[in-house]
Amino acid sequence: MIYAIMEGLTKQQLVLLALLLSFVTSIATGIVTVSLMEDAPKTMTQTINRVIEKTVERVVPADSQKASIVTKETVIVRSDDLAVAAIEKNAKSIVRVKRVEGVGDKRNEVLVGIGIVISKDGLIAADAGVLERQFDAYGSAIPRSFLAMLSGGAVAELKFIGIDEESGISLFSAISPANTALDITPAEFGDADKMKLGQTVISIGGEKDNAVATGIVANLAQKETPDKSVTAIYTDREAASSLSGTVLVNLTGEVIGINAGPFRYEKSRYLPSTLLKSAVERIKSASR
After folding, report:
1. Could you tell me if 18 and 12 are in contact, meaning their C-beta atoms sit under 8 angstroms apart?
2. Interatomic CA distance for residues 46 and 49, integer angstroms
3. Same fold for the pair 85-90+188-287 and 94-175
4. Would you list the domain boundaries of the chain?
5. Please, where are the H alpha helices in 40-148?
6. CA–CA gap between residue 215 and residue 26 (Å, rounded)
7. Which tens digits make up the pLDDT trace of 151-187?
């Protein structure tokens, strides 16, 4: 009987019937999967949950049919792949800041922090602690200047623009060598106010080359206001570097925090990107 009914269907009706059966099968599979996941050991579900499945639908017109066929292909994107891409995305957005003390044979270069590239024209934000003054035996301030070590090994002089006392952020402008463009990429900033507890984050630091540490958002300090804006981000792992200015990014490579200002001595705590951007704007306004 079923065979007779099938024979009486047109090609278009057969296609629609196949789609309906596929849809019903997908729902049944989903229900069974959820049931199995609920009964599975916790370690197994954690592993599975770290795999992100993206389903892409494509409409493919059939030459001999009036109806279009919808095909599905599943692309598996592992969290490890996302982390690698996020780190690579910021390779040219992170610099090492050196403080040059003294002159002549008493010149000394000291690595003092990590800087984050704010704009293509060379604005670089760093922890205000890099500005710490050194004094000689007579109590006189030792002359100083600053350098930025770029990702490709190039070195650029830094011109100090200003400091935001409220956030503990300093701002510099990189001076490109003669007839040479700065090989830098401005960081893309995420909205720290949209961070969620348990969200995967990556800290990027390191004294010479990038060193990273992955963890999750363990706590969010928020203002007691209707918008509940974030004032501090806590992670479950210490920063990847002892240097101030270590950068915190999400899995899409957006910068959502920096270990600076009041948090420079707490290596699992970060100043949110929203406050960093506000600090940069205040410094730029004050320097005009």
Report:
1. no
2. 5
3. yes
4. 2-78, 85-90+188-287, 94-175
5. 42-49, 79-89
6. 34
7. 888 899 999 999 999 999 999 999 987 778 888 999 9
Q: Tell me the helices (H) and strands (E) count for the chain, helix number first.
A: 5, 14
Smallest Cα–Cα separation from 71: which of 80, 61, 60? 60
pTM of the entire predicted model: 0.72
The domain over range 94-175 is classified in CATH as 2.40.10.10: yes
SS3 178: coil
Alpha carbon distance 54, 45 (integer Å): 18
Q: Are 221 and 274 contacting, i.e. CB atoms less than 8 angstroms apart?
A: no
The CATH fold of domain 85-90+188-287: Thrombin, subunit H (2.40.10)
Contacts of 91 (CB under 8 A, 6+ apart): 151, 185, 210
Q: For residues 270 and 213, is the Cβ–Cβ distance under 8 A?
A: no
Supply 238's token pair: 């210490």
Q: What is the C-alpha separation between 238 and 240, in angstroms, rounded?
A: 7
- Select the more confidently predicted residue: 80 or 53: 80
- For residue 145, how many other CB atoms are within 10 A of its CB? 15
Distance CA 102, CA 108 (A): 6
